[in-house]
């Protein structure tokens, strides 16, 4: 037999040699032999097995009661351990006993509650900042809900303005969020903000809404929408309201652009005029201050000189009166005359003419 198998074994000849067919036939014969052995075992092998006897031999030394007790103990231990739960960072947990809230505000970490069906735990992410956009299609909406339509508000002067905005909010009270409101949070935020925006726009003029009132509108919308959410005890807190775009309807866009351009031109002209004024006023104020100081100095100087002249005249008058009483007043008058001439004559051109009576050529003295 062995010799026959060796003869039928694959030959190291080339693939096209006749021995390849003999090798393939031998392989098929081996596979058939293995399958026949497996089939025979399946038919007769299990008849020789006795599972009950094998189990008794393996566990016969154990007490059945002890086995049952150990099994129930293990199951009870697993049941007790199932009450352990984990609260992730940024989450808060709420424990309920038969549906009634018995504990809330549970922070991150490992905690324990009574296993099911006695107690149940609800976890809410209170740190996540969620975003709801109105009139803008964002990735957050994909698979969740369609992008909300833009808001059309009626202004106080009966104009229509389209509003697009983005609202950021978070869950601040897990108990209120879980049990007080049936709406999904983005729906509640959407409706509250729409109500607040419509109400506020009705108290403003269209020019203010499109220009200077953006920050005021954002602040007022956040406050009024939050008051409405608190009234419903929704457990939601609005973090920010961002007016992404305020614009008139398409039919009136060109007219509003013209008005806006005119307003910008006006502001520019006013700024230029104020700059021109600021360039003139400070120098003029400085010049006026300088002239005022010079006038004050001149006033003080004239006053002091006048006072000095008055004192000097008073002294001369006193001397004159004294001289008039004791002697003739001509002496004093003569002295005053001489002193005055001494002051005046140095500044006067003097021409000395001979007294011979001859003619004098005045051109020599610079006269015509």
How is the biggest beta sheet arranged? 4 strands, antiparallel
Query: Order of SSEs, N→C?
Result: HHHHEEEEEEEEHHHHEHH
- Taken from the alpha-carbon principal axes, the silhouette is elongated
Task: Give the total of beta strands.
Answer: 9
Helical proportion, percent range: 40-55%
CA-CA gap between termini: 174 Å
CATH architectural group of the domain at 130-248? 2-Layer Sandwich
Q: At the first level of CATH, what is the class of the domain at 130-248?
A: Alpha Beta
Mean of the pLDDT scores? Answer: 76
Low-confidence segments, given as residue ranges, are 1-18
| Count of alpha/pi helices | 10
Q: Give Rg in angstroms.
A: 58 Å
Structural class: alpha+beta
Q: Please state roughly what percent of the residues sit in beta strands, choosing from under 5%, 5-15%, 15-25%, 25-35%, 35-45% or over 45%.
A: 15-25%
What would CATH call the homologous superfamily of the domain at 130-248? Band 7 domain
Would you tell me which CATH topology of the domain at 130-248 applies?
A: Tetrahydropterin Synthase, Chain A
Assembly category:
single chain
Region (Disordered): 1-22
GO biological process, one term: proteolysis
Transmembrane segments: 67-87
Function: HflC and HflK could encode or regulate a protease.
What do these coordinates show?
The chain has 368 residues and is α+β, with helices and mostly antiparallel strands. Among the domains are: 83-125, no CATH class; 130-248, Band 7 domain (Tetrahydropterin Synthase, Chain A, 2-Layer Sandwich). It is built from ten helices and nine strands. The chain has helices spanning 2-8, 19-44, 51-59, 64-81, 174-179, 185-201, 206-210, 214-231, 253-326, 330-344, and strands at residues 84-87, 91-97, 100-106, 109-112, 119-125, 130-134, 151-154, 160-171, 236-247. The strands form three sheets. Strands 6, 7, 8 and 9 form a four-stranded antiparallel beta sheet that branches. The protein has a three-stranded antiparallel beta sheet with strand order 3-2-5. It has a two-stranded antiparallel ribbon with strand order 1-4. Strand 2 and strand 3 (100-106) form a beta hairpin. Helix 6 packs across helix 8 (214-231). The longest helix has 74 residues, at 253-326. The radius of gyration is 58 Å and the shape is elongated. The N and C termini lie far apart (174 Å).
């Amino acid at each position: 037999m062995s010799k026959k198998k060796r003869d039928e074994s694959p030959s190291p000849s080339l693939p096209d040699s006749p021995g390849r067919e003999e090798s393939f036939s031998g392989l098929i014969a081996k596979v058939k032999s293995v399958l026949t052995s497996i089939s025979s075992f399946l038919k007769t092998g299990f008849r020789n097995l006795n599972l009950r006897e094998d189990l008794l031999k393996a566990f016969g030394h154990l007490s059945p009661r002890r086995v049952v007790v150990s099994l129930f103990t293990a199951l009870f231990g697993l049941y007790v351990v199932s009450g352990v739960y984990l609260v992730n960072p940024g989450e808060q947990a709420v424990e309920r006993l038969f549906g009634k809230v018995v504990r809330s505000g549970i922070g991150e970490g490992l905690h324990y509650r009574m296993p099911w069906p006695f107690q149940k735990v609800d976890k809410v992410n209170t740190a996540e900042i969620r975003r709801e956009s109105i009139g803008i299609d964002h990735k957050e909406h994909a698979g969740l809900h369609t992008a909300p339509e833009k808001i059309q508000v009626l202004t106080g002067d009966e104009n229509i303005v389209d509003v697009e905005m983005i609202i950021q909010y978070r869950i601040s009270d897990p108990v209120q969020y879980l049990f007080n409101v049936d709406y999904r949070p983005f729906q509640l935020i959407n409706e509250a903000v729409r109500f607040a925006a419509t109400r506020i726009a009705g108290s403003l003029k269209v020019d203010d809404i499109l220009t200077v009132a953006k920050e005021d509108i954002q602040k007022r919308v956040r406050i009024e929408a939050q008051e409405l959410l608190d009234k419903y005890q929704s457990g939601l807190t609005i973090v920010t309201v961002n007016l992404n775009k305020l614009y008139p309807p398409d039919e009136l866009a060109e007219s509003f652009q013209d008005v806006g351009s005119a307003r910008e031109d006006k502001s520019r002209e006013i700024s230029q005029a104020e700059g021109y004024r600021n360039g003139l006023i400070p120098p003029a104020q400085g010049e006026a201050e300088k002239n005022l100081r010079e006038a004050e100095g001149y006033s003080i100087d004239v006053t002091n000189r006048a006072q000095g002249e008055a004192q000097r005249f008073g002294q001369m008058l006193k001397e004159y009166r004294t001289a008039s009483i004791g002697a003739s007043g001509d002496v004093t008058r003569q002295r005053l005359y001489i002193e005055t001439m001494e002051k005046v004559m140095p500044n006067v051109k003097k021409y000395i003419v001979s007294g011979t009576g001859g003619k004098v050529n005045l051109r020599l003295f610079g006269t015509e």
